[in-house]
Sequence to fold (118 residues):
Amino acid sequence: MKSRDADTPNSKRPKRQNRLISVCRVEDLPPGRGATVELAGGEEIAIFNVNGEFFAIENFCPHRGAPLADGDICGHEVECSRHGWRFSLRTGACLSHTGSNIEAYEVIIKDGELKVKI
Ligand code: FES
Fold:
């Protein structure tokens, strides 16, 4: 793991509000795919389907700000499409650079609806 060489702030990070938001139907996000969810206030999260397990993280790479929803899923990690930094989908931990962790959000499925707790 390398030391951090950049730290771009995420102006689209949702504020924690301890509430569930509906993002899509389960069938709308096929296995192996990620998608950007834009919230009412312009904030963004990235959601992923890893073989039927769903994850939600910030949609923002702290290196240079690329949307992580566009990254490649590698097991339970996502690799940023721009320069390859990797993040745990389970925890938001940055696996490439110390101190560049991002937020991970709880995902709940209810009646076929994917909900994210922000
Ligand atoms: S923007 Fe450089 S690794 Fe993500």
